[in-house]
Write a structure and sequence with these properties.
By secondary structure, this protein is mostly helical. The chain has twelve helices and no strands.
Length: 281
């Protein structure tokens, strides 16, 4: 309950920023739509050419499939990081007392396009290596990949804010993020809860409540209402995902500013942010 209370406070403080600049929702919305287009543009040709069946019937991952997978990771990560950079850049403008616009965020991302591409290449390489380990090591490999994936996610949590705030390359940005978070190995960052915990609970409530309501309506032979509730539930989950993405970008900007400057922005609890960087005994 203590973790959820801290997470709820973080979510509310980040939501205050989002309320001031609702246009920040545009970035995760466009990012999600672009990610779907990228996925379809890579997956559908593979199905059409029957290459997935060839991979499934072969031993291990073929060089052609690995090249395809790397290209998919590269483009997909670039799209995600690009719009996340625009979101974080706009959030930092608000934290500095300005009034950000969608155009301002996109200009920040465009100015960092080559650096973002480099970071996407690093992330794509890591993703490919983790996939190769998973394929070769079986069940144990999946456990190892899971642990390495968590470590990578924690270490790179502040990479995008670093890219926005500093004129550095992708490798230096990853190193700086790891350095800032390395004081706790991400222990407190995860242990004290985060926005993800709040939205996990909200999604769980929506899904369980929706399933129960749909089942009840179906049992009463109210098929139209059951379908309407199911559609509303899906839309609610999508809306929650959109808000979560926006709040996560805002929170990463806030956490980076606090890590570098040691001062909490208005509306954020300095003690709570300080706990995220508290040294382990």
């Amino acid at each position: 309950m203590g973790k959820f209370a801290r997470s709820w406070s973080l979510a509310k403080a980040s939501l205050q920023v989002l309320r001031s600049d609702k246009e920040l929702l545009v970035f995760p919305l466009v990012s999600g739509a672009a990610a779907v287009v990228v996925a379809l543009s890579f997956v559908l040709p593979m199905f059409g050419l029957g290459l997935f069946e060839q991979v499934a019937g072969s031993d291990g991952l073929s060089p052609v499939f690995l090249a395809w997978l790397f290209a998919f990771y590269l483009v997909q990560y670039f799209v995600i990081f690009f719009f996340n950079t625009a979101l974080v850049g706009a959030a930092m403008i608000r934290l500095d007392g300005g009034d950000p616009t969608v155009g301002a965020g996109l200009r920040i991302a465009m100015g960092k396009a080559w650096t973002i591409l480099g970071y996407a290449a690093i992330a794509a390489t890591v993703g490919l290596l983790l996939r190769a380990i998973e394929e070769r090591a079986g069940f144990i490999g999946r456990i190892v990949v899971g642990l390495l994936g968590v470590a990578w996610t924690v270490a790179t949590f502040l990479t995008v804010p670093v890219l926005v705030a500093r004129d550095v390359g992708p490798v230096e940005a990853v190193k700086e993020s790891a350095r800032l978070l390395g004081r706790t190995w991400g222990e407190n960052l995860i242990g004290n809860g985060g926005i993800g915990l709040v939205f996990f609970m909200l999604n769980l409530a929506v899904i369980l409540g929706g399933v129960a309501l749909v089942a009840f309506l179906a049992s009463q032979q109210l098929a139209v209402l059951a379908v309407a509730v199911a559609v509303a539930g899906v839309l609610a989950v999508l809306c929650l995902a959109l808000v979560q993405a926006a709040l996560s970008g805002i929170y990463s900007a806030v956490l980076y500013r606090f890590a570098v400057q040691g001062e909490a922005p208005a509306g954020f609890d300095a003690v709570m942010l300080r706990d995220a960087f508290q040294r382990k005994a």
